[in-house]
Write a structure and sequence with these properties.
The complex is a heterodimer of chains A (about 220) and B (about 260). With about 220 residues, chain A is of the alpha/beta class. Chain A has a domain at about 5-60 and about 125-210: P-loop containing nucleotide triphosphate hydrolases (Rossmann fold, 3-Layer(aba) Sandwich). Chain A has helices spanning about 15-25, 65-75, 85-90, 105-120, 135-150, 165-170, 195-210, 210-215; strands at about 5-10, 35, 40, 50-55, 125-130, 155-160, 175-180, 180-185. The two termini of chain A are about 35 Å apart. Chain B has about 260 residues and is mainly alpha-helical. Chain B has one domain (about 1-255). Chain B is about 85% helix and about 0% strand. Chain B is built from 10 helices and no strands. In chain B, about 45% of the residues are buried. Classes of the chains: A alpha/beta (about 220), B mainly alpha (about 260). The interface between A and B is medium-sized, with 26 and 24 residues.
Chain lengths: ~220, ~260
């Protein structure tokens, strides 16, 4: 996957999107094959994660830690930076919940905290697992604008989503997965000047053709 | 570098959960009560020794596993950062062991020192620390192998029952059934396979309490003598501390989150 692109993984539930993301992060150990980041095999490595930030599907924050502690632990563990990017931190009002415990936050607020953390560090790759799920429309728009800004800065954004409009708005490359394998991989799937109708039809067709019930 | 940081996060998280302070206070009250109301100091120490030998493994197994199940999110959060799995495992294992050691020292060892049982207290501290790390190793091993919390805790309670209760019964059965055969070496091997027995033998050999050895302890003493017996029991306790934690680490290294 090249830098300066937004790559979207799509596919039915259980198709392996999250497993692939977790494999890249080292949370899941691949049974076979390998993953390289900037030419280096990541198996058993941890330093490469300084180059990656991750926003999980459901933010796994320890419930008894305060937001302030979660941020300071993350900063403490990662490579020191001169400047942190506080754009989402400020826009999502994280400063007002610093004293709250993660367990007391709503799902949406946890997602906002997770997004603020994922964009706080100067990382080359940002991995987002269904980033807008659980976010209100206003926060979703802020996040999408931030994703586009990151892409323009030459970073690689890898995300999963089920929302077709999001793909046509953000994506440069679409990877459709099924049963852990790539079914479709297209870089130019949007019609220049089009309204995205063709693309939506294509994705709908992919889902219809690969509906899990048909495979039983 | 990261191990120190990770240890710090886990340790402060454990202490904040209030389990350890409550454990220390209850143990302190129990220890002080037994020493205060017992007229014979030696008998009081034996009672405390038995409490330590049975209670510490059970508490370590339950606390260690429940904490591991409850800190899944924390572990997952840490693993998405640039830290090795080895650092995360060691940070968790050491913080569990050292926090429980702190509770044990404040709850049981401190009153022993206060009531002037210094040598006994030092021995109990050594045996207690071994048991704490051994059974936390078991707790992490099982809780990393079994994802279902109820099932995992159930298995660990069975582990405790095996070592603390059934093992002695099995040994008695073996001695009775094979009474006509020479059982010395088999007895030593069998007693080495139970860390609770080894910890008891280690203390008894040092205090030279022949009447309280039991059959396995007596055989141990006869075979190695008091001096060498202590070193052999220490070596076995070290092995017991290393093996379950190594298996637990190996399981953690290959675990999917």
């Amino acid at each position: 996957m090249k830098k300066g692109l937004v790559v979207t993984l799509m596919g039915p539930n259980g198709s392996g999107k999250t497993t692939l993301l977790k494999s890249i992060l080292g949370l899941v150990i691949p049974e076979k094959g390998g993953i390289t980041v900037e030419g280096k095999n990541i198996s058993g490595e941890s330093d490469y994660r300084n180059k990656i930030c991750y926003m999980p599907q459901s933010s796994p924050f320890p419930p008894n830690l305060k937001v302030r502690e979660i941020i300071s632990i993350t900063k403490d563990i990662r490579k020191k930076q001169d400047n942190y990017d506080y754009e989402l931190y400020e826009k999502f009002g994280i400063g007002s919940i610093l004293g709250k415990k993660a367990g007391a936050l709503s799902q949406g607020t946890r997602q906002r905290l997770s997004a603020a953390l994922a964009f706080m560090f100067d990382s080359e790759i940002v991995v987002l697992d269904e980033p807008t799920a659980g976010l209100d429309p206003y926060s979703s728009e802020i996040l999408k604008a931030r994703i586009i800004k990151l892409k323009k800065a030459g970073k690689l954004v890898l995300l999963t989503t089920h929302i077709v409009n999001e793909v046509s708005e953000l994506s440069d490359r679409l990877v459709f997965m099924l049963d852990g394998k790539i079914k479709v991989d297209r870089e130019s799937f949007r019609t220049p000047g089009g309204n995205g109708k063709e693309f939506r039809e294509m994705v709908s067709k992919l889902f219809m053709e690969n509906e899990p019930a048909k495979n039983i | 570098m990261n191990l120190r940081k990770i240890f710090k996060y886990f340790f402060s998280d454990i202490v904040r959960s209030k389990w350890i302070p409550v454990y220390a206070v209850l143990l302190f009250a129990l220890t002080s009560g037994i020493i205060y109301f017992s007229r014979d100091g030696q008998k009081a120490f034996i009672s405390l020794l038995n409490i330590a030998l049975y209670l510490i493994p059970l508490l370590c197994l339950i606390f260690g596993s429940v904490y591991n199940y409850n800190s899944r999110e924390f572990v997952e959060m840490l693993l998405t950062q640039p830290v090795t799995r080895k650092s995360v495992f060691m940070g968790q294992y050491l913080s569990l062991g050292l926090s429980q050691t702190a509770g044990f020292v404040l709850g049981m060892i401190l009153p022993l020192f206060i009531y002037d049982f210094s040598i006994n207290a030092a021995l109990l501290l050594a045996a207690g620390v071994f048991l704490i790390f051994i059974f936390n190793g078991f707790a992490l091993l099982v809780s990393n192998m079994v994802n279902d919390k109820v099932k995992g805790v159930g298995i660990l309670i069975a582990v405790w029952l095996f070592f603390a209760v059934f093992y002695d019964g099995l040994m008695l059965f073996m001695f009775y059934y094979f009474a006509d055969y020479p059982l010395e070496k088999a007895t030593i091997i069998a007693s080495s396979l139970n860390p609770v027995d080894v910890a008891r033998t280690f203390i008894m050999l040092r205090l030279d309490m022949s009447a309280l050895f039991g059959y396995t302890g007596a055989v141990f003493k006869k075979y190695f003598g008091s001096g060498a017996g202590i070193y052999v029991s220490l070596l076995i306790l070290h092995l017991w501390m290393i093996v379950p934690s190594l298996f637990a680490r190996r399981k953690f290294r290959k675990k999917d989150f």
